[in-house]
Structures are given as structure tokens and as C-alpha cells.
Design a protein that fits this description.
140 residues; alpha+beta; Immunoglobulin-like; 5-stranded mixed beta sheet; 2 helices; 20% helix; 43% strand; elongated; binds copper (II) ion
Length: 140
Amino acid sequence: MSQIAMRLLMLMLILMFALAACGGSASNSTAPKTVTLTMTEFQFQPAEITVNVGQPIKLVMNNNGTVLHDFVSEDAQVEVREEHGADHDMAERHTTMHTAVEAGQQSTLEFKATQPGTYTVYCTIAGHKEAGMVGKLIVK
Ligand SMILES: [Cu+2]
């Protein structure tokens, strides 16, 4: 085999490995499913989020409003993996999920639901829940 043919064969092998690696990561079932949520005054859009038990979820929250909002649950049975949000003092409130988003900003919350059920999510800023910032996390 000539030197050039040998090099071409090596190049083909490298390309095949690279393609196999790409295919592998694309079909990786542990990659989180992205769910996008929009916040405004005064609602979550969508107001209901449905996920499966054990499915990794990356919740991407866009605050399209003009004031700080947050996404909180006190009862959702979840395992929070990673959170990137605005600083927001929750005082003594007990929460299982909590991410704040500054006006015009984006925050993310990666979690896995651990128990089926229907849980309440809401915004803790005074008056916002009453004005409509309340929703449901449905876990199947
Ligand atoms: Cu709010």
C-alpha cells in the first residue's frame, strides 16, 4: 500500500470515530430536556409544566417583565442538580425549588422529579401569586 493510500485510510478511520462520537452524544438519554418558561407581570407561560419521574429537566426561565420574579415550589418532590439564578433572600420559607430571575434576564434550574404528583409553583414576591403568578408542576 502506498504512503498516500495509508494516510487516506487513517483519515477515514478518524472521521468514522468522530462521527460515531457525535451520534453517541446526540442520542444520550441523560442529556436534560429543556423546558422554557416565560415570566411577566403577572404570569408564568406556560402555567403548567409536565415532566416524567427521573427525567433530567433543564428549566430555562426568561423574565420578560419589568421586576424580579421567582419560581418556587414548597411541595415538589425533586432533586435539584444545578441552579443559576439571581440572588434572592428567601428568609425562613421552606422551598424544594427556588430560582429568581431579574427583569430582562434568564436563569436556569436543572432538576429531576422523584415522585409523581401535581405540585404548586408560584412567585414569592409580595402580591404576585395573588395576581396570577401561580402554576403547576405535573409529574407523571
Ligand atoms: Cu413575580
